[in-house]
Amino acid sequence: MPPMTDPILIDDLTLAYGTQRVLSGLSLRVPAGSITALLGGNGAGKSTTLSALLGFTRAQSGSIAVCGIDPAADPDGARRHIAYLPENVALYEHLSAVENADYLLALSGERQPRDAIVEGLAAAGLQEQAWDQRLGGFSKGMRQKVAIAVALLRRVPVLLLDEPTSGLDPRATADFNALLVQVRARGTAVLMVTHDLLSAADIADRIAFIEAGRVAHEASASGAERFDVRALHARFQAGGAKVAA
Amino acid sequence: MSIVRLIARDELRLMARNRVAVIAVVLLVLLTLVAVASSWAHQNGIAELRGRHAHAAESAFKAQPDRHPHRVVHYGTFVFRPLGPLAAFDPGVDAFTGNSMFLEGHRQNTANFGDARQSSLLVRFGQLTPAFVLQVVAPLLLIFLGYGALARETERGTLRLLMLQGTSRGQVVRGKLLALGAVAMLAGLPAMIGLVGIAGQPGALALPMLAIALGYAGYLALWAVLILLVSTLVRRSRDALLALVALWAVAVILLPRVAPDAANAAVPLSNRLQTEVAVARDLRTMGDSHNPDDPHFAQFKQAALDRYGVATVEDLPVNYKGLLAIEGERLSASLYDRYADASYAAQARQNGLVDWVGLLSPTIALRSLSMAAAGTDFAGHRRFLEQAEAYRFALVQRLNRLQMEDVSYADDGATDAGADRRKRIAAHNWQAMPDFRFSPPSGSTLVGKALPGLVILLGWMAGALASLAFASRRLGARR
């Protein structure tokens, strides 16, 4: 039986926009059934890493694979294995929450019955009275919940999240984190770009710090032993010191 | 359901949930239905009116009493151009060129030298026809419905959302094209139903109707492609709308208005007064059949005497005045024909120039196609003029021959009390004259005339599709 490869594999990736180098030899792997939090300052290259995984930007050197597919060579193929939750959620305002989910799931070939969709919306924390309302009147948080539901309803091996809790209140954030733990439990590889140290410390299996376009430090949690949030914060502020698990 | 159909269905759902869009589509459909009905009624009214007048003119001609044939030559008659069934769809130049002619001896009257190309699309804003609605109004509706189809997705970030579901750029573009194409066909449907109604009319020709249906379907589909092309190239919906409205104004309004004026400036036509003065001048130099001392007719007289082997016109076995009338009519008709041919040639050059502008404006190409297939273009008008002139010439020469054979030379010149009665011939001679019957062109002839417009439209479509395919490869890319 051939060895299982990690759903996300990035090796020595270098990427520049024109003359501006954004990634400089970034390497990262996210195993199945794990959550990796990607931390770093503004402009460190976190979102660019996600963009490269989604096939929207092409690296100059290095390799990148999503479930064995190079997103630069076959972006549509790679995206079929990815659910993505962007920081600024874009959805269709002329459609209701249920219709948005139905349309997007149908496009990805993963159409589900209404019961499953409303279950997903409920799990994402969207209240029942909002299910059949058009998104035109939704708050940012409500839109985010719809997007979370769509991302989670897609039972794909890779979940990419870009600041997923930025529009959520603390309770919704806690609910979301609980959802991510469930997603991990079903074997999904989760890569989460975030500034939310508490969430990262709470649910991530690995935390990677990006500095100057590469992973400067990685830390892993083992079993019940979680990250030290104070140390994480200090690392985030200063950089350089090793973070103890 | 395929991804392309899913995207098309969502685009249609968006339109259906946009109250303004729904109202606009309903208004267009109503406008087209009204245009079909009113144009149909208008053309039926015209056909009935022309038929009635034609019958009255024929009856009046045949009701003439016994009289001298040359008086009948000058009495003349009216002929009217009958309209084909497709004129209800596109009346073309009919309203501007005149449709009746007074036929008499010695001259060609009226519309022969009319400036058919003086009219332009703008003039026809007052004329609500299915052709006008589809050529001018329908593209504008498609623009308002489709300008944001792709620019909106780029602008709001939903294009990436689609691509994140594994949808390719090509599938997105094809889905939008399918949706806008469906709306375009819906916009054209009432007019096509009108065409089907026309198909049941006597004289309706299948081939030209097919050419018209293909031409308009292609034209609306072309607009759908152009709209998506612009929507692909710009990143903001507002910019797409501005660019498309500008394109519509130039292609649909400005160029069709400017092209005939430019053609008229490049190939000037003599107006009616100038032509009549020139013809009168040439007639004077040519000779006068009523003047027996005219040099040309003196020579003609000698040739006639020689042919019959007699010394004087009184000895001729036929009425010399009849012979003179036949020769005079031949000469004047050939002169008028020369002027008419020059005018036709100039107008053909003008039309040729306008057709070249069709390379820049698909509306001009479609208009040429539509009028040609409907038989209401300049060629159709010319066909009527030529047939009317052929009829006039044959009628006058037949009357001249009656004068030559049935009225004696002695009686023709007599002035005594009974002379007037002796010069007359029986009324049954006019009653036996054949009526004017316009011979319409065959379907293949009409389609042949419509082909250049169809080819230009196909060229536009190929270019637009290639551009859209190229532009869609960069859709949503960072700029």
TrEMBL record, chain A:
The keyword Transferase does not apply. Keywords: ATP-binding, Nucleotide-binding, Transport. Residues 8-237 form the ABC transporter domain. GO terms for molecular function: ATP binding. Coiled coil: none annotated. PROSITE patterns: ABC_TRANSPORTER_1, ABC_TRANSPORTER_2. It comes from the Bacteria. SMART domains: AAA (SM00382). Pfam families: ABC_tran (PF00005). This is ABC transporter ATP-binding protein. The lineage of its organism: Bacteria, Pseudomonadati, Pseudomonadota, Alphaproteobacteria, Sphingomonadales.
From TrEMBL, chain B:
Keywords: Membrane, Transmembrane, Transmembrane helix. The chain crosses the membrane at residues 20-41, 131-150, 177-199, 205-229, 241-259, 450-471. It comes from the Bacteria. InterPro entries: DUF3526. It holds the Pfam family ABC2_membrane_2. This is ABC transporter permease. It comes from Sphingomonas hylomeconis.
